[in-house]
Specification:
8-stranded mixed sheet; 11 helices
């Protein structure tokens, strides 16, 4: 669950509310008089916006210090006994916490933007239209390729979530499948923030005391709100990447093995299964799309052919870009599978 003090909009509103409370308690000075003061470091519209909490970044310390001092001077002139401190030293810790939240937000945004740029350059054009093609493996068992955003997918009742061996879901503002599944599966408050972190909390409870897990390890959880949004009944978390200090995440060497481990795990579900895999290890871990698509598709084909009594009806692979869908098509062709007519 996102803590209020680590949420930038909340932190800005709370700091603005404190400034407004001081201004109200002092009884002034008016915003018009502050605007008229050439030595005051902010103009009228910006002062109003700051006191109303309609700001997207912290005010300057020069403004905070000047505003507090003028409220103190006004209160003294008008014999107002202030209970709130007007010593700038008492305001510095709260201001420092606010700027730390801002800097963390900026780093996360820069990281997300940089990764999105790298993702786009390396992985091709994002597909905005959902299309599904099927390839028969045997006896009605199929492999499908779904294009577009995972949030639009409603054809699979089980989703696979690629995780590292630490089995910790990504933060909701990150650019990853894990972050999307975590956010969409959670309940939200009126402002859209996470209220109950349903999937992440269940995963944490199941791996408590057992981190890190082995590469290829699989853990099943519920799907939270994805049940009502996308008709997803279960999420399968698979350790498809591992981290190395100073060098980031890397796909496990035999990433195709993850497919078999996941499919064996969902055989225990008391229901017919249609399951969606992203291309494991090709996101933050930067794995080769063509090689990994081939490995995953061949593993799924082999499993469906070798398991006559399987509960699994369709294995879907998600293709978010044109390069990914082309890699899946080449892999299916190499596996000897042709598109289903129609």
């Amino acid at each position: 669950m996102t803590k209020p003090e680590s949420d930038l909009p909340t932190a800005l509103r709370q700091f603005s509310a404190r400034l407004k409370e001081l201004h109200r308690a002092a009884g002034g000075p008016s915003v018009i008089s502050l605007h008229a003061d050439r030595n005051f470091p902010l103009r009228r519209a910006h002062i109003f916006a700051t006191l109303a909490g309609r700001i997207s970044r912290p005010p300057t310390w020069k403004f905070v210090e000047a505003f507090v001092q003028r409220c103190a001077r006004y209160a003294q002139t008008h014999n107002v006994d202030l209970e709130m401190s007007t010593d700038p030293a008492d305001w510095e810790p709260a201001y420092r916490r606010l700027t730390q939240v801002w800097e963390m937000h900026q780093r996360e945004q820069h990281s997300a933007d940089s990764f999105a740029d790298r993702y786009g350059n390396a992985r091709g054009k994002v597909l905005t239209v959902q299309d599904v093609t099927y390839h028969v493996v045997r006896d009605g068992r199929r492999i499908g390729v779904v294009t577009g955003d995972i949030r639009q997918v409603r054809c699979a009742n089980v989703w696979v979530n690629p995780e590292s061996t630490e089995m910790e879901m990504a933060r909701v503002h990150e650019f990853s499948i894990s972050a999307i599944i975590r956010y969409e599966g959670a309940t939200h408050d009126a402002r859209g923030r996470v209220a109950e972190d349903l999937i992440a909390d269940e995963l944490t409870a199941k791996v408590a005391g057992h981190r890190p897990v082995e590469p290829g390890a699989v853990i099943l959880t519920g799907a939270g709100r994805l049940r009502e949004l996308n008709d997803v009944h279960h999420v399968v978390h698979v350790a498809s990447v591992h981290g190395e200090p100073g060098s980031g995440f890397h796909p496990m060497r035999d990433v195709g093995r993850c497919v078999t481990n996941v499919l064996q795990a969902v055989e225990h579900l008391q229901m017919p299964v249609t399951i969606l895999f992203p291309l494991l290890g090709t996101g933050n871990a930067g794995g080769d799309i063509g090689r990994i698509a081939t490995s995953l598709v061949h593993e799924a084909r082999n499993y469906l052919r070798a398991t006559p009594a399987t509960r699994i009806e369709t294995v879907y692979f998600l293709a978010y870009t044109d390069k990914e869908v082309n890699a899946c098509r080449r892999a299916l062709k190499a596996a000897g599978l042709r598109p289903e007519p129609g």
